[in-house]
Design brief:
Shape: globular
Helix content: under 10%
Strand content: over 45%
Order of helices and strands: EEEEEEEEEEEEEEEEEE
Largest sheet: 6 strands, parallel
Radius of gyration: 13 Å
Strand order of the largest sheet: 1-4-7-10-13-16
Number of helices: 0
Number of strands: 18
Oligomer: single chain
Length: about 120
């Protein structure tokens, strides 16, 4: 029996929110605002089309639709949506880059984390 992923949103940072400093949390987060600092969670990170992040992202799954300047690490999947702009390296078990996404960096995949 496989463990079902938690889809509940634990933290939301609104479009008018600006954070300077690192964020560490448990659970899922959606970001609409601006962050200068690293974000680390054991859950999913969703970066909306309005978000601007200057820092590292580390989480279970990452769904990027806005601008990120920094390296991203996911235990699961990194998805760059059609409006994404990522300037940094990707390290993940699965990488999806949609048509229209802009990406400047390198990719590496954690092949040991892929289920056989």
């Amino acid at each position: 029996m496989t463990k079902k992923k938690d889809t509940a949103i634990n933290t939301i940072l609104g479009e008018d929110t600006t954070v300077t400093g690192n964020i560490q949390l448990k659970g899922n987060i959606i970001i609409y605002g601006k962050i200068t600092g690293d974000i680390s969670t054991d859950g999913a990170i969703t970066v909306s089309t309005t978000a601007r992040i200057h820092g590292q992202l580390n989480g279970e799954d990452l769904n990027i639709g806005g601008n990120v300047e920094g390296n991203v690490v996911a235990k699961g999947k990194v998805l760059l949506g059609e409006t994404a702009l990522l300037k940094g390296d990707i390290n993940a078990s699965q990488i999806v880059i949609e048509d229209g996404a802009r990406f400047e960096g390198s990719c590496s995949m954690n092949l040991s984390d892929i289920k056989k």
